């Protein structure tokens, strides 16, 4: 039996023929718009569904409020649509319900709102719901919502419609410019122009560029504010310290004006964002308000109490007595300059030991040092004075030497100098007394009474002796001798007494024997001397150690002028 069927070649040819026929059929369908018409019919059906849905919402609100105003019904319809937005999302993918409006293309119209579904735009108004076209066919709408300014910024806020997917371009130009400058491209509907000049008019242009490249622009004018000046009426400078100083002064400005940065400057050119400036010299200081770009008028202060220059150099003068040194100092402050003040003199203080110790400060430039005698020959001191101005700058004077003066009525430093000649009328003897050394001393004659004794052992009720009294700050200086070398006659060579007065140790001579002026109140001796007598014979010092010491102390006080 013979097998029947098709060969492999015949099968391939058959498949090719079928493919050719299929291609011809698809091309025929496409060329005749069958698919296009089907899609269009589907779109029209979708648009019809949406329109009918929105109409039902409108009719529903009209029924619920038959006497309501257009605004009430349209607002209620919009709210209803928003509440049931998921119904529309079942028909389309992207759904937007815009705000209600009474303006369209620059004209006032009855209240309405737009619903956009998959870029198809539907207008809902009181009398109807209509499909008005695809979103890409419309120009965007832009409206000014608000505009405000500070001294250096302008903030503009707009609202847009039919600009989904589009951009906003923000331009600006000042009143003295011809061309706008693009500052920012963004999707944000609010923008702040910064770093603007104060008190200047600017033109603001905002262009809405829709996704379909269609544009619309908004132009407005706005003038920036102006920063107020700082004046003595609204601000002030304070200074620390406020009195004279030889240091720095901090100048601080304060004001009741708010909203700006306070700046200060030392030269009016270089500014710091601080309320204070530290001034190292006298001079002006400035303050102003600043907004980050612009500044107001300056308030000027002035630092005047800095004095860093010490008083002028000086040399004190001195004058002396036997026990005091008077110092006179006088100087003035340095002359005022533009950067350094002249605070004036505040006072002086004095030192007698080259600055080791000082007196208290005083306003007077004269000071008297008392109790200065430490040596009968004169005491020398290194005197120095400091002068201080009101800013506490101090100048120290040159050092001057001052020596206590000698009272030559009492002072003696000659060896073998004749001190006194005593004539005894009773035995016609003449007795001479001489200074023993060249050490400085003070000398006088003194009466001293001796009770119930005498040099030769004879008892008398009273003797009144006359004798020299020598006082010195050295032991040898207090010695004197007579022209006879009799032991009693030269008792003062051996018996030297000492005592202290005002912190100084003094040595004084004793009485020399055989110098009897009288006894039992009868006097029979006379004397001559070139020196003073301390007391009267009727008022003698008492015998013993107390007598010469009393005479010595009296001599010291006379010498010191007390």
Short description:
The protein has 562 residues and is an alpha+beta fold.
Tell me what the structure shows.
The protein has 562 residues and is of the alpha+beta class. Strands 26, 29, 30, 32, 33, 34, 35 and 37 form an eight-stranded mixed beta sheet that branches. Strand 3 (107-117) and strand 4 form a beta hairpin. The termini are far apart. The relative contact order is 0.06.
Distance between the termini: 182 Å
The helix content is: 10-25%
Helix- and strand-based class?
A: alpha+beta
Biggest sheet features: 8 strands, mixed
What is the 3D shape?
Answer: rod-shaped
Give the amount of beta strand, in percent: 35-45%
Query: Which ranges are low-confidence, i.e. pLDDT below 50, for 5 or more consecutive residues?
Result: 453-460
Radius of gyration: 62 Å
How many strands appear in the DSSP assignment?
A: 37
Determine the mean pLDDT: 87
Number of helices: 5
